[in-house]
């Protein structure tokens, strides 16, 4: 072997070791465990496809799939739209622009746990900020976190508040759109909305694609906020971690419950692999569809 | 060709390197551990993790300090870990505590999952006297005839009432029967013009889930036969408890009840009972200890749970459960853990711990200690603990599935999505499956 290769490998060994031991090995192990009955105490015993069969017929799994799809379908576009609108506004030349940019970005660096705690107060049905403001207009706000109909919208609202990460990437993309395009459109008499639709959107479409995929993956794996809210509120089912009438039972929450509450590592691993499969398929489909709506500068 | 072989070779080398590093890391850990488990004076270390935090955790730490000073063989190191999942996973991974606590209803699950170490051998070896324990509490630490855990306390709900709110509604006495309870609850509830609840008369705060079993057992219900083979849930006590919650939520609106529940947090300054905005509360004796410790100014009384109308022979009923301590199956210092467990359960330390928590200890000897007499409201609470009508739910294999199903079905009823009749038929239809 070439000396240079060895040296190179040696230098990259911290990463390689970490990757092999803490990423590749657990991934491979979970694939194996997904075909076994394993509770971490007794050694795993092979059960073939039983775990996958269980996943497909268990009511709670389907409930969690519906809840998760709700978030994927509604929360992803909402956070993208909010992020884009914020970016658009913060791209305007106004005094104190950088201060606004900082302010709107801050929520996204607040840890999920802290966000959940703050929002529990914001969403308090009696003394919370939102219901108090609604009260000024004579509207009685809902019981955000205890009403099964409103729990997921509450989470979407929380997500929109933390859209700063999405916003900052859109902001960078917006600044990359050549001014000359806007100028020529203006000369041709295009209004603000026309310019946004015909120039801005196509020009930043590669970024929209990226954000869309990241957003979908995030919401497919939705966990921390839901887990916090389900365990912090006085809402019925704390031990089941499912929230009022299982409205917060997301796929990842159920997976966690299977693995670390009920110690069914086999079914949990099977769930994880199915999630991986579904996320991959959806990502692939979006990539396929992107030929039709994403414009690359080089084309 | 050559470069390909070189590549393969280098991959082998990297693989070997990883193996060597990993093995040496493991080896390092092994050779470290004996030295880590002894402190000065060659005492062997016992790790105790507990779910309590704050002041309650400090009391336990004090007992640990006393233990450490009392002998020179073991050294106990306590750690507050208020996340039970974390403890379980750590035990499973072999890096957990030697001794830790939980609640009795986990015993069947943990025993089957292999988290708990059976104590029978240790008890036999020492001739440890179990007759000091309240029999029903001791039973709560058993599964399939094996003692997996020792009970710390006997927890049960008692009725707290706000004297001022009751007096305003024209009552000088707390309710004694189910009918009186509902009357008082309705008359003391105050509603705002928009329908929202200002003062809640019913004990549905913190939640109906928290209330239900206490209400039903107070009405003389039992869910199961003593051997846990037969479902006995379909009785007038359970039905009355269901109907009462259903009626209250129908009358005052589920949304309004939920709004009140979400507005306050249990035992914190937003708790409606502590704000004087809840007339009747079902809670454990710790509420007295909490009120005393925080110096909360509230004129309250304590009474037995109301019994079902026309059934005075079931008065003083209720559901008992226990907190427990158990030795982890993967404990590296079983003898040390056992030694500390015995110390903790000896009369004085146990009474000290329990009285500050506002709990009734699970041993008769601790109950007689002076410390217990100084517990907040001891004179009112201790007599309630003697009631022969207090019952517990016997353990069985699928207890957690049983509880989960029941919780889910009842929740639909609390939210008026199902009637009590529909709920009862769902329960009697499905629950027997979990008893097989």
Give an overview in words.
The complex is a heterodimer of chains A (299) and B (436). Chain A contains 14 helices and two strands. Chain A has 299 residues and is mainly alpha-helical. In chain A, helix 5 (112-122) crosses helix 12 (224-232). The model of chain A has no long low-confidence stretch (mean pLDDT 91). Chain B folds into two domains: 38-155 and 321-391, D-Maltodextrin-Binding Protein, domain 2, CATH 3.40.190; 158-319 and 398-435, 3-Layer(aba) Sandwich (D-Maltodextrin-Binding Protein, domain 2), CATH 3.40.190. Helices cover 48% and strands 14% of the residues of chain B. Chain B is built from 19 helices and 17 strands. Chain B has helices at residues 2-36, 54-70, 84-92, 107-113, 120-126, 135-139, 163-168, 178-188, 208-218, 236-252, 254-263, 286-294, 334-344, 347-357, 364-367, 370-373, 378-385, 399-414, 420-430; strands at residues 38-39, 43-50, 74-80, 99-103, 142-143, 146-147, 150-151, 153-154, 158-162, 190-191, 197-199, 280-283, 300-303, 318-319, 323-327, 360-361, 390-391. The A-B interface holds A 1-2, 5-6, 9, 13, 16-17, 20-21, 39-42, 124-127, 140, 142-148, 233-237, 239-240, 244-246, 260-263 and B 6-7, 9-10, 13-14, 17-18, 21-22, 85, 88-89, 92-93, 113-115, 194, 196, 205-210, 255, 258-263, 265-266, 329, 400, 403-404, 407-408, 411-412, 414-415, 417.
